[in-house]
Amino acid sequence: MLKKLLAGLVVVLVVLSFLKTHAQDKIVDQIVAVVGSNIVMKSDIENMYLQQQAQGITSDGDMKCEILEDFLVEKLLLAEAELDTTIEVTDSQINQNLDQRIQYFVQHLGSENAVEDYFKKPIVQIKSELEEVIRNQSLTQQMQGKIINDIGVTPSEVRYHFRNLEEDKIPIIEPQVEYAQISYYPPISLEEENRIKARLREFKKRIEDGDNFATLAVLYSEGPSAGNGGELGYMGRAELDPTYAAAAFNLKGDRVSNVVKSEFGYHIIQQVDRKGERVNTRHIIMKPKPSAESLQTAYDRLDSLANFVRMEDITFDAAAQAYSGDKNSRNSGGMAINPMTMSTKWKKEELDPDVSKILDELKISEISDPFKTTDDKQRTVYKIVKLISRSDQHRANLQEDYQTLSDLYLSKKKEEVLNEWISEQQAKTYISIDNSYVNCNYKFKGWIK
Question: Which DSSP helix (H) or strand (E) runs through 7?
């Protein structure tokens, strides 16, 4: 229920209001449940049922009964949140969320006009209908957080829980690896950087003389947004490179920025629109390229360093701390941290394909030859990697998989606390359910009074 609720708070409350547009005419609507002062409509259930069918979701039970119970739990959280004076949602929070949702639709449908055509209503009306949805979603999420966020587990609890798990309930751990790396970025010549900056200054002049920015971005920009005319969509400062953000938020009208250097490359930027602390920009990005001599220098330097480590003149950890250009792994002796889990363990599909290919060929503690790849900012980099550990598929155990087991028990403990809260709140809250749903096989028995 906990995982389902966490997902449902986002999917049900946001998507449903739009699906309602297409299905409403076919449904004779009625109130099927009341929780506190909040209602559940028959159309809510029918629309979610259609969505789950479209996604291929099936159930061994009565899916419409299950959908109704998900709504009942959400309304129970909402009813309590509305009574809790420590929980609030500000207009600025709602407006920011509205902008994000509309931008999401624009990115997937192509333009604001396409969004209006799809939903058969103007953007202003879509936002108006979404306001209450977003407010309720935020309230229920905050209420749920208040109930379970302080729950923790101790090592002794994890060990006890694991030892009492039935064999078939112990999770299967997929094959994983741990590795360390040393990265070296081939130096870029001053001549190459000046060439890129001069090219961008030329584009800026052409735009100021009448050329279309978006067209030039399609033709010359070296970023993934090129096909969209260089447009990035609405973003806050924290979502942008700091130097890019500083320039973007300082632009007025349709002026084009001077050349801006970021971790991704060099840019010229034009503001498309700004809404509060979110800005939509288009840019042309160009990336200086290392010369053939620079690439060879990078390879030779790492090759020599790898040999020093193999001969034990220096440890891999010390070499990484002294010479690696990757700030994310340098201070941990080169250990690569998986950003999806914040652990040192990686499944094969989570690895960079270039790194994965090299690790497949290594034995434990073996160091690779240098190889060329790109980093998360699409910059050319040479690496050497050391395979730290490799595990085959296995049932979890405390020695290798403590964190996984800890997370599993924590999730179970939070679910138990939430379930207990739901049962207690059912007894305290006014709840009424239409006769057409009284015979559902509910997980929580307190809905029918």
Answer: helix 2-23
Residue recorded with tokens 């440890």: 315
**CA 245 vs CA 50, 228, 237, 253, 320: distances in Å:** 42, 20, 6, 16, 31
Q: Give the pLDDT confidence score for residue 24 in this predicted structure.
A: 46
pLDDT of residue 118: 84
**Looking at residue 210, what is its pLDDT?**
94
* Positions in the chain whose pLDDT score sits under 50: 2-27
* Separation of alpha carbons 256 and 265, rounded Å: 17
Cβ proximity of 68 and 39 under 8 Å: no
Contact (CB, 8 A) for 84 and 143: yes
Residue-number span of the structural domain to which 385 is assigned = 176-187+290-395
Distance in angstroms (rounded) separating the CA atoms of residues 436 and 449: 15
What is the model's pLDDT at position 28? 58
**Among residues 252, 268, 286, which one ends one of the domains?**
286
Do 267 and 301 reside in the same domain of the chain? no
Residue 391: enclosing H or E segment and its boundaries?
A: strand 380-391
Q: What is the DSSP letter of 228?
A: G
What is the rounded CA–CA span in Å between residue 116 and residue 124?
A: 10
Neighbours of 140 (CB within 10 A): 24
DSSP H helices in 24-173: 42-54, 63-83, 91-109, 112-119, 123-148, 155-163
pLDDT in the model for residue 19: 38
Q: What is the DSSP letter of 367?
A: B
CA–CA separation, 173 vs 170, rounded Å?
Answer: 9
User: Residue 254: exposed, middle, or buried by beta-carbon count in 10 A (0-12, 13-18, 19+)?
Assistant: exposed
Q: Is-contact 231 222, C-beta < 8 A? A: no
Q: How far apart are CA 83 and CA 162, in angstroms?
A: 39
DSSP 11-44: HHHHHHHHHHHHHGGGS---EEEEETTEEEEHHH
Residue 312 shares a structural domain with residue 354:
yes
